[in-house]
Design brief:
Layout lengths: L1 H61 L4 H16 L2 H24 L2 H5 L1 H36 L3 H8 L11 H8 L7
């Protein structure tokens, strides 16, 4: 009888150890996926930020009197470069996207600019980069969803708490930024 109890205790200890091991490794895997996805976002943002000075210079050559638009784009670019963390980066990104909309709206007013091969190439590269940023955001948010779900589920939440796994923020717009992003850009010439 004592031997049976000993085997039961050993069996429970093995089951608990396997559960802890599997849960911990699952959480680590999801955390690494989220970090990788965030890295993908930052790479694409850097690529876009590197394209912007060329685009601004091209447009500036045609629209010298649109100084406020260029200053807004430059300031927004700087804010993205200096952003720390997901929420700050998302807010800076949203401001930057609004500034880019203004820049392209200005470009629409200049037919010679729209016909410029340099401008068209830069615009195409920017569109490609924007697509990559959106894909990276979706991948990141999917990873965050999976990690946060695993952390919230019982009994995983006990293991997550023991080992210090925390929930991550989604890369998203807040309500005010969402309304601003959906509003068409006004251009005054």
């Amino acid at each position: 009888m004592e031997l049976l109890w000993l085997w039961i205790i050993i069996g429970l200890a093995v089951v608990i150890a396997i559960f802890l091991w599997a849960t911990y490794n699952g959480l680590v895997t999801l955390r690494i996926r989220v970090e990788e996805a965030w890295s993908d976002i930052t790479v694409q943002l850097k690529r876009r930020l590197d394209l912007i000075p060329n685009l601004v210079n091209t447009v500036q050559g045609y629209a010298k009197h649109e100084k406020s638009v260029f200053e807004e784009v430059t300031k927004a670019r700087s804010n993205v470069l200096n952003a720390q963390g997901v929420k700050d980066t998302a807010a800076a990104e949203n401001q930057f996207e609004g500034a880019l909309k203004s820049l392209f709206a200005v470009a629409e007013a200049y037919p010679d600019l729209k016909a410029s091969q340099n401008f068209v190439e830069l615009q195409n590269e920017l569109v490609d980069t924007e697509d990559k940023i959106q894909a990276a955001r979706r991948f990141y948010n999917g990873g965050v969803r999976d990690l946060n779900t695993k952390i919230d589920l019982f009994p995983n939440n006990l293991v997550a708490g023991m080992f210090g796994f925390g929930k991550r923020d989604f890369f998203e717009l807040d309500e005010a930024e969402q309304a601003k992003a959906e509003k068409p850009v006004e251009v005054k010439l």
